[in-house]
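Fold it.
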Amino acid sequence: MARIHPLSDVQTSSIGENTSIWQFCVVLSHARIGSYCNICAHVLIENDVLIGDRVTIKSGVQLWDGITIEDDVFIGPNVTFTNDLVPRSKHYPDSFAQTHVKKGASIGANATILAGHTIGSYALIGAGSVVTKDIPPNTVWYGNPASMRGYVTNEGILLDLNKKDKQGNLHNLNNND
């Protein structure tokens, strides 16, 4: 059974078991949220949003229509997603750009993810980065605009651009993205 704080406005019934939704969240009626998720305070989730299992969404995040978050993703505090590349007040597109965050990816605090991009599985986006393109799996990106700075294993070991860890060990990255 999901745990929903009484000070949240959760309109969907599509929430997996053992998911927690904390105070001051708004979740619209067609959103789908998996099991064992932690949705922290002050999160907005619109209708056309799919969230997988074991996802952590820290405070201050808004997930707009067109966003898919796969299993085991971490989204840091105040990460900003967009879904309209040419927004105008009271003028809505026929459909919103689709953004896809693949399994195991992590996005650091205050990063901005522009609409219509895919963040590959187990990729790591550094805090404060601005993502303006698709991100390959198992890569580390940071900066404004974000640029590739290295690799990361599925287990979270940071690697340099030659796929070596801090001890100089070479890693082979096998991914299925």
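The longest strand covers residues 147-152.
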